[in-house]
Amino acid sequence: DTAVSQTPKYLVTQMGNDKSIKCEQNLGHDTMYWYKQDSKKFLKIMFSYNNKELIINETVPNRFSPKSPDKAHLNLHINSLELGDSAVYFCASSQERRAIMGYTFGSGTRLTVV
Amino acid sequence: DAKTTQPPSMDCAEGRAANLPCNHSTISGNEYVYWYRQIHSQGPQYIIHGLKNNETNEMASLIITEDRKSSTLILPHATLRDTAVYYCIVRVVGAGSYQLTFGKGTKLSVIP
User: Chain B residues with CB-CB distance to A under 8 A?
Assistant: First the structure.
């Protein structure tokens, strides 16, 4: 069983389109995250949700809208895609009240905007 | 969270111990030291963490200096599959920080 699963694994789309990436965790964790890794390989947090509540929203364009229907899911919707949105997006989860054991990451979604 | 400093890259011969250093001179008393790694094209993977004492698990050992200003991750018998970027991260746990901040890490190359 995959602990943190993201779909799709690859996404190629044209500029201006709207797309969604889905994330699900089966670890019973209470906090989920989206990270972006650009071409320079720098991993940067975008959003953090704790018990379906938005906790962290870094300086991300408002074209990016996370949605957490329940504690096990955190989806990322992106409107009006731009070339600069091309990156690998990683979902992660943790049990923040007992976050000693660290975060579990998904395998990533490689988004290419053409 | 305190800042960490790591060498940008290191090489290690296969089968030898890989010792990855990390400087965290501004660490505060309630901050833990975490190590993650990212193998090419995969998501980051938790390795180990510690507060004051040295720690060991099936993947690695973590040695933290007595003043806690630096630490070393030890992979006792490096294999080619250990080639990855290794991140040393310092953070408070359970205080609602709700994020893990990655630096540039150390790119470890295990050489046959």
Answer: 32, 34, 36, 38, 41-46, 49, 85, 93-94, 96, 98-102, 104
Helices (H), A1-114: none
The three state secondary structure string of chain B is CCCCECCCEEEEECCCCEEEEEECCCCCCCEEEEEEEECCCCCCEEEEEECCCCEECCCCEEEECCCCCEEEEEECCCCHHHCEEEEEEEEECCCCCCCCCCCCCEEEEEEC
List the single residue in A4, A96, A102 with the smallest CB-CB distance to B94: A96
Task: List strands edge to edge, sheet with B84-92.
Answer: B9-13, B106-111, B84-92, B31-38, B45-50
Q: What are the tens digits of pLDDT across the range A57-108?
A: 777 899 999 999 998 999 999 999 999 999 999 999 988 766 566 899 999 9
- Confidence at residue B27, expressed as pLDDT on a 0 to 100 scale: 92
Question: Of B84, B81, B89, which Cα lies nearest the Cα of B6?
Answer: B89
Tokens of A107: 């395998």
Q: Are A108 and B41 in contact (CB < 8 Å)?
A: yes
Q: Do B96 and A96 touch (CB under 8 A)?
A: yes
Compare CB distances from B43 to A41, A96, A105 and report the shortest one's residue: A105
Chain A residues in contact with B93 (beta carbon < 8 A): 99-100
CB contact under 8 A, A92 and B43: yes
Cβ of A22: how many Cβ atoms within 10 Å? Answer: 16
